[in-house]
Amino acid sequence: MKSYWMNISDGQGHLELREVDVPVPGPGQVLVKLHAAALNRGELIVGHGLHGKGGSKPAGMEGAGHIAQLGSDTGAWQVGDRVMGRCPGTFSEYVVMDVREIMPVPDNLSSEQAASIPLTFLVTYDLLVMQGHLQAGQTLLINGVSSGVGVSSLQMAKVLGAKVIGTSGSQAKLDQLKPLGLDLGLCTRAADFHETVLQATEGKGANLVVNTVGGSMFAENMRCMAFQGRMGIVGYVDNTLSATIDLETLHSKRLCLYGVSNKNRTLAQRSEGVAQFAKQILPAFADGRIQPLLDQVFEFDQLLQAKVRMESNQHTGKIVLRIAKPD
Q1: In the listed set 240, 259, 278, which residue is the last one of a domain according to the structure?
Q2: Are residues 104 and 159 in the same domain?
Q3: 254 pLDDT exceeds 80?
């Protein structure tokens, strides 16, 4: 089968298309014939924390397709079931997925839409629900709201009943997100928005902040946070990996700071929220309350062009690779 690999050397990442054997599922695993896979910045752009200093690994982190073969101990799953999930190597024609990580694809979603869900929306669920404890009526502030995690955070927050404020350097992108429920869009790439956020929240501030940008926004986000506010750090596209913490504000406002990353988590840790997500959030995809926002779909042999699209920072929502048409 054809499979893309990421080769890391001299601080640079190079994609290589290889011919490799079709993997065989073991206990608790299924072989999935992939129809589509989504791109993620943290994997494809070296320097975003997901790479070592060198070596090679299968590329791709989330995808959708149908079960082609069952291993042992796979429960009620059957060959032919449409599934989506996270696993290494999804820029391939086939991949082995652990049954703890797979979810059924709602009938109303295409394979391309489904491929954009598993990693991004599970990260978002971790950000907003499992650690962020976002409640109906609260306010969420998203730095970089037009990113993949930003758009999924916007949509999930609206399902949870929250108000959403988002920042972006592009007014056109903010306008595109209005129909998805963006309550207030702030067109800025600078750390200059806390006064506007306080005005919009009657001086209370944001209950939860999702920082997809990095250290350059950290201090400004602290100024935006409400009493007992939370801030989740999920990216650093600004390449600013350090920031000054106002300990007096952290102390007096009882703030909570946390990170969201799967890099050092075990499979058991990564999969612990999947069933909860499927029960609480997946119905919102099935009934149309959440509609995955796709920026552009590329064919399997166009992965390099798709990577260039991601590096351009011109996309809104997810970039997807179409691998094969459903049977």
Answers
A1: 259
A2: no
A3: yes
List b or e across 108-131, with b for residues whose CB sees 16 or more CB atoms inside 10 angstroms: ebbbbbbbbbbbbbbbbbbbbbeb
Q: What is the pLDDT of residues 120-131, one digit of tens each?
A: 999 999 999 999
Angle, in degrees to the nearest 10, between helices 118-125 and 148-159: 60
104 and 133 co-located in one domain? no
**pLDDT tens digits, 169-205:** 999 999 999 999 999 999 999 999 999 999 999 999 9
Q: Is the same domain home to 111 and 140?
A: no
pTM: 0.91
Same domain, 181 and 52: no
Rg for the chain, CA atoms, rounded: 20
Rounded-to-integer distance, Cα 252 and Cα 244, Å:
17
- Contact of 186 with 165, CB cutoff 8 Å: yes
The span from the CA of 90 to the CA of 36, in Å, is 8
DSSP state of 92: B
Residue 314 phi, psi dihedral angles, 5° rounding: -100, -5
Judge whether residue 233 has pLDDT over 80: yes
Give SS3 for 244: coil
Q: For residue 299, count CB atoms less than 10 angstroms from its CB and return exposed for 0-12, middle for 13-18, buried for 19 or more.
A: exposed
Rounded Cα gap, residues 165 and 162, in angstroms: 10
Look-up of token digits 């699209």: 309
pLDDT of residue 51: 44
Dig out the tokens for 307 from the structure: 């990577």
Q: What domain range includes position 304?
A: 2-116+292-322
- Residue 292 to residue 77: CA distance in whole angstroms: 25
SS3 content of the chain, % helix, strand, coil (to 5): 30, 30, 40
CATH of the domain at 92: 3.90.180.10
Q: Find, among 311, 269, 320, 314, the residue nearest to 292 by Cα.
A: 320
